[in-house]
């Protein structure tokens, strides 16, 4: 049974709902992405304030969490009952940047598979960072923060406490990083699937079709030897695609059916290693049998 989240996306927790930091000891952030998010704050903030901020988040409380496109806001209370409103404003990606993100994921089967299965991979973050697109902020000052307390330092205790709370939200669902830059995970998946569909089924006679034929050396009709050899009339052999362990079924997206409480896609995906091992065993036996026949 899936544990109910202690925050809501989008929406606001009731004001009466008070939360404390789940990590009561040691560093905040269980997963690598949450740890990196915390390190952005801790590399910039003053140690004394950060220590008091953790104490505030662990012994005080937060409430009224809201997370939407480009922003996160909540109330922070370090003592007593009064809360201070705190907000974090993230840089929303432009249309051109989002187009770049979608193209990057669409053109990489492994990244597409990770997105569809919900696996937040280092490859995704690292690949985008090479293009200077930062899902996890590269520096604290790239995020605008506000709090109306008397402390003139940024981050103050309340802002840092909110940052720690957000790190634990990301621990639960790292794809909120998409939302913090302006687009939900579901919107990204929809755009990626649309792009892949357009690439795999281009309009007949379009420039895309012609470009694909020229780039991949699609064999002419009747050239049956090219089906397995990948050799066209020009005898040009296609370069092999680097091996990436992504089951083909994952590229199709979730199935409209469920079996035993899980999506049928997940059930089928688990069969691929078994089928692969069986096929490899059969091939090895066939090669061994063929070898014995040749040596008779």
Question: How would you describe this structure in keywords?
Answer:
two-stranded antiparallel ribbon, four-stranded antiparallel beta sheet, 296 residues, Zinc finger, SWIM-type, alpha+beta
Could you outline the blueprint of secondary structure elements for this entry?
Layout: H1 32-42, H2 47-59, E1 61-68, E2 71-77, E3 84-89, H3 95-106, H4 109-117, H5 122-130, E4 144-147, H6 157-172, H7 176-180, H8 185-200, H9 207-216, H10 226-229, E5 258-259, E6 262-263, H11 264-269, H12 271-294
Antiparallel strand pairs: 1-2, 2-3, 3-4, 5-6
Helix pairs in contact: 1-6, 2-6, 3-8
Organism: Methanospirillum hungatei JF-1 (strain ATCC 27890 / DSM 864 / NBRC 100397 / JF-1)
Protein name: Zinc finger, SWIM-type
Oligomer: single chain
Percent of residues in beta strands? 5-15%
Order of helices and strands: HHEEEHHHEHHHHHEEHH
Enumerate the strands of the largest sheet in spatial order, edge to edge or round the barrel.
1-2-3-4
Which class of secondary structure composition applies to the elements?
alpha+beta
Radius of gyration: 25 Å
Question: Treating each run of at least 4 consecutive H or I residues as one helix, how many helices?
Answer: 12
CA distance, first residue to last residue? 60 Å
Helix content: 40-55%
Low-confidence stretches: 6-14, 208-244
The largest pleated sheet is described as: 4 strands, antiparallel
What does this structure look like?
The protein is of the alpha+beta class and 296 residues long. Among the domains are: 32-96 and 132-182, no CATH class; 203-232, no CATH class; 254-296. The protein contains twelve helices and six strands. The strands form two sheets. It has a four-stranded antiparallel sheet. The chain has a two-stranded antiparallel sheet with strand order 5-6. Helix 1 (32-42) runs antiparallel to helix 6 (157-172), helix 2 packs across helix 6 and helix 3 (95-106) packs across helix 8. The chain is elongated, with a radius of gyration of 25 Å.
């Amino acid at each position: 049974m899936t544990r109910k989240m202690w925050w809501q996306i989008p929406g606001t927790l009731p004001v009466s709902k008070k939360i404390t930091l789940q990590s009561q000891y040691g560093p905040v952030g269980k997963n690598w992405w949450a740890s990196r998010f915390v390190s952005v704050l801790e590399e910039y903030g003053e140690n004394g304030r950060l220590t008091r901020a953790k104490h505030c988040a662990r012994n005080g409380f937060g409430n009224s969490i809201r997370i939407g496109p480009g922003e996160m806001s909540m109330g922070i209370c370090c003592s007593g009952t009064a809360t201070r409103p705190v907000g974090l404003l993230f840089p929303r990606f432009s249309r051109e940047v989002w187009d770049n993100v979608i193209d990057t994921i669409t053109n990489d089967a492994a990244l597409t598979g990770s997105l569809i299965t919900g696996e937040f991979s280092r490859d995704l973050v690292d690949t985008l960072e090479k293009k200077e697109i930062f899902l996890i902020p590269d520096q604290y000052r790239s995020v605008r923060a506000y709090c109306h307390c008397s402390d003139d330092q940024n981050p103050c205790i309340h802002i840092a406490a909110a940052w720690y709370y957000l790190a634990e939200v990301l621990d639960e669902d790292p794809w909120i990083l998409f939302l913090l830059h302006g687009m939900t995970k579901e919107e990204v998946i929809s755009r990626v699937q649309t792009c892949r569909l357009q690439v795999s089924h281009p309009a007949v006679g379009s420039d895309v079709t012609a470009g694909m034929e020229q780039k991949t050396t699609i064999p002419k009709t009747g050239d049956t030897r090219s089906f397995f050899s990948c050799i066209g009339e020009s005898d040009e052999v296609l370069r092999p695609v680097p091996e990436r362990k992504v089951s083909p079924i994952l590229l199709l997206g979730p199935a409209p059916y469920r079996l035993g409480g899980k999506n049928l896609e997940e059930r089928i995906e688990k069969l691929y290693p078994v089928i692969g091992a069986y096929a490899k065993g059969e091939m090895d036996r066939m090669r061994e049998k063929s070898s014995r026949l040749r040596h008779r």
